[in-house]
């Protein structure tokens, strides 16, 4: 069973690397096309580690087009992990520009936007934030590593029991609630870490799950029209799929099932509403 889990993890890592590779090549291609360049060859994408990728961009930099083009390319290959972008000088390796994924949602946009840049060789480097492992519940999960040896198995069981006890204790909101935390019912969402908390467990969300839940949490007990949800969560990513709303609402319902004070209801022919009460 351990071999099967490792094989699946390796396969996921390979697919992720391939999709990032294609996304970066698509980004450079579109930036070259925007500059009227259809002849410059796109060099291979380099991978420094499991989360860091880079590609050279010759004779170019339309920095204002980079954030949107890159995000649309990543969305096209279903990559929704947060990331940090660094633009380096090819010769000196010094950092010329950069921004974080979360800057895309800030009112002022990404840093240094709107400033002219000399067209020369740059290296586009993208580092993805490693996905957080979802919280595990007690039970039979220790079987996954039992073949690793008696000592390892006993250590895992002791740790799992200890953590489970902590998860069962209430998790109240801090007295001073950061702006990144949205409370509803007996749950709250940390938008910065894309983590959902309730009184017993935590759940790591994907980018779009967190974005959709944040939209609901900011508009509790209000009906949100389907078109409004699509435009708010998907359209600015370059991907608009009508059934996406239903699929992601279904996911959120499962994640929120442990909180009886929260429910996402469908309003026929209109959209959805997050009902929350104390």
From TrEMBL:
Residues annotated to bind DNA: 179-276
Q: Tell me the lineage of the source organism.
A: Bacteria, Pseudomonadati, Bacteroidota, Cytophagia, Cytophagales
Q: What is this protein called?
A: OmpR/PhoB-type domain-containing protein
* Ranges where the OmpR/PhoB-type domain occurs: 179-276
Its keywords, alphabetically, are: DNA-binding
Native source species = Dyadobacter beijingensis
Q: Which Pfam families match?
A: Trans_reg_C
